[in-house]
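The instructor's notes for this session suggest beginning with a concrete chain rather than abstract definitions. Hand out the sequence below and ask the class to guess, before any prediction is shown, which regions might be ordered.
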Amino acid sequence: MPVPRGSVDDSVVTLPELWVPEARQWLSTSTGRIAGEGYSWMQAVHWVAGSGLYQPRRYRSHGPRSFGPTTVRVAQELAALLPCRPGIEYLVRRTGLSERSVEYHLGMLREAGLLAYIVKGTRVAGGPAQASEFARMIPPEFDVALGIRTVQRDETAPAYTRAVSGIAEAGRELMAKLARKAARKVRKRRAKASSKTSVRAARKGAEQRVGTAVPGEARCTPMQVGTSTGSSAAGTSLPPESKLASGVSTSSTAKKAKARTRSSAGERRQLNKVGRRFQLARELTERVDWLRGCSTPRIAWVVRGVADAGWTVNEVLAWLHLRGEAERVRRGSGLLAVLLNRAESVLDTPAKRTAAVEQWHGALEARRRHRIEQVRAERERQDGAWESPADAALKREIETAFAHVNNAARNNLQQSVLNGPAQPAQAGADPFEISDEERTEMRGQARAQLQLGTTDLIDDTIHALGTAAARHLFGEDLVRRAQQLAGFARSSLTTYQTQ
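After discussion, reveal the predicted structure:
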C-alpha cells in the first residue's frame, strides 16, 4: 500500500529499510513484539506489503521479487492458526502454491520481522518430518512508523511481551486503512481476460482484486476497528482464548453448506460432448481386456460417433459382441475403430440398442451355464472310474503291465492248487524271477522313498501282488514302516511335509 501523504507526517512513515538477519529470526533474539491475535498481525503484514521497505531481491538472487499479494495470502493462513504451527504440505494444499514457493514466502515473512521461530522443524531419517512453530511478531519499524507507544507491564518478562499503550495522532488514519485491509480476504489472482488490456488497467484490476471482503467473517480484534478512523492500537488488551479464531474460515463453511444444499436439491454437473467421449473411453478401457493400456484420448476420439449418439458402455459392449471376438489383438484402438464403423447408423434407435444389450446378456448367461456344466463334467470324470489314456503307446504299456500281473496271479493260483494247502509258505513266493541284485536295488529305492516320506513303490506292490509278496520283495521291516507312514498320512491328527 502506498504511504499516505498530507495528513501523515513524513517523519513518522519514512524508514531506511526492513530486514532481519537469520540470527535474529528466533523468538529469544527478536527485537519485535508478539501480536496479540491474528487481526492486528495482519495489519502489520499489510503495512510491510505497502511500505516497500522490504525487498527480497536486495538479499538474494532468486525467489519472489517483492512482498506481494501471494505473501499476504500465505500470512492469512498463518493468522488463522492457533498455535501457529503450519506444515509445508498444509500450506501447499491451502494456497495452491508449490512447496518451494511456500518456503520462499515463509522466509520472506521471517526476514521482514513478521515471524520468529519458537521451535524449528526437523527431518529425521526414517521418521516423520516435524513442522516448525512460529510466533507472529510485529516489527519495531511498524511501531516507529505509526507512532505506537508500548509499555513493559512485567519487568521480569521478556522484551517481546510488551503491550501497546497508545498511538500518535499522525498514525491513526493509516491504522484505520490497515484495519480495513486486515478485515478483507486476499484471493488468488485470476487470469487476464484479454491480451489487449493495458498495463495500467491490469494493475488497477489487480489492486482491486487484492482485497475482497468476505461477508459475515468474524473479526478478532480488541478494539473492534472497522471503518472508523479511531486508533486500533490504543488500549490493546489480550483477548481470552474463547475469542480467538478457531482456524476455520467462514467463507469455506459457507461454500460447504452451499455445496450440500446443491447436492440435496439434486443438482448434478452435466458433461459436455467432449466429457461424454472421455467418460465412455475410460469405461471401455476398464471393461475390455484388449483395450487396457490404450491411451484414453485416442479411445475417446475413436468412440466419438457412438458417444455423441448417446450410447452407453453396455450398448458398445453388446455391439462388439455382435461383431465377434478377436483372439489376437495387436492394436486395440485400431480394432475398435474397425468394429465401431457405422455402428450408430445400424443401431440407430434406443429400441435396437436395448435389444442388442438383451441379446448380449443372454449370450453371457448361456456361456456361464456352459462353463458350469463343463466344470461339473470334469469333476465327475475325475471322481469316477479310471479310463484308459488316449495315447496308443502309453495304452500298450499299461495293457502289457496288466497282462504280466494277471499271468503272475494265475501262476500263483495254479501252484497253490497243485501243491495244496499243506505248503502255506509258498503263498508268498516271488511271482517274478528276479535276481538278488535286482531285489537289493528295489529295496534301496524303497528305502530312499521312505526317507523322503513317500510309499508309492511299496503301496503299488501291495496293491498289485499282495502284502505277502511285498514282504518277500522288500522285507518285513520296510513294509511295516511303509504301512505306518501311510497310516500317519491318513490320520487327521498328524501333519508332515517332505523336503
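Then share the key points. Confidence is low (pLDDT under 50) at residues 3-13, 204-250, 420-431. Residues 10-250 form one domain.
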